[in-house]
């Protein structure tokens, strides 16, 4: 049991994000400073001492990164995709998110929390981005404050349970062809989505061999697993009812920089629904075939509605 807990705490690191220097203005982001968050001291200091041996990839484990084995998105293909640059003093975390309303972005709690009690000092949401490295005419860049960060009250930083949060923007975004809200499952929809093809998107790394984060939004698809099948790979302590899992078959997965981003399904008529929020995956790399674990959106519908202005949630 102890080894399973250790594995969880190590593996969650792969989905946490990436870091870069704090931008001085909206348009002057120093993207050359982007690197995996696992290389930063703050990430490791919150974990138990026995996990420090994993910091440099010893014991056969190392931080991983993705979207791996995916495809480049078309411009406007994922209008609900958000890129969050979350500031913690002298460094900033890069994560994904999804547009809920003109005022709120859904993301992972570990993208906006330094530890159990310390929220980010603020940050920026980039909407409508295809190439994050340039200020495209499709983009909207809107800041948010620490007062706009809302974290699930049961979130636990050391094991990433209830790993969901919302960000309230300082100013409302504008809906257009490139920025649109995501649809969430209906409260009456009792499906677990087992066996359905899921899509994960983001700006995370594309392989386990280098530290390069792609500039272009990417995506990949795989099959949503039952929680039982997922627990058979991870152990029953790591997969709970508030989680949903995507198969890692074929090395197709999400990765560092993709945390907080969406897992979606497409229904008849091409309607897309978000069913998961990227939380964690294997510390042995993004292409090792292990399932990626997400927060199950349908589990959190009441909390989302109570803490946002999403009337359709």
TrEMBL record:
Signal peptide residue numbers: 1-19
Protease recorded as keyword: yes
Gene3D superfamilies, alphabetized: Trypsin-like serine proteases
One of the Pfam families matching this protein, by short name: Trypsin
Superkingdom as given in the UniProt entry: Eukaryota
Peptidase S1 domain ranges (all copies): 67-309
Biological-process GO terms, alphabetical: proteolysis
InterPro entries the UniProt entry points to: Peptidase_S1_PA, Peptidase_S1_PA_chymotrypsin, Peptidase_S1A, Trypsin_dom, TRYPSIN_HIS, TRYPSIN_SER
MF terms in GO: serine-type endopeptidase activity
Database matches in PROSITE patterns: TRYPSIN_DOM (PS50240), TRYPSIN_HIS (PS00134), TRYPSIN_SER (PS00135)
Family annotation (CDD domains): Tryp_SPc (cd00190)
Keyword Hydrolase (UniProt): yes
Keyword list, A-Z: Disulfide bond, Hydrolase, Protease, Serine protease, Signal
Similarity annotation: Belongs to the peptidase S1 family. CLIP subfamily.
Name of the protein in question: Peptidase S1 domain-containing protein
Organism of origin: Anopheles coluzzii (African malaria mosquito)
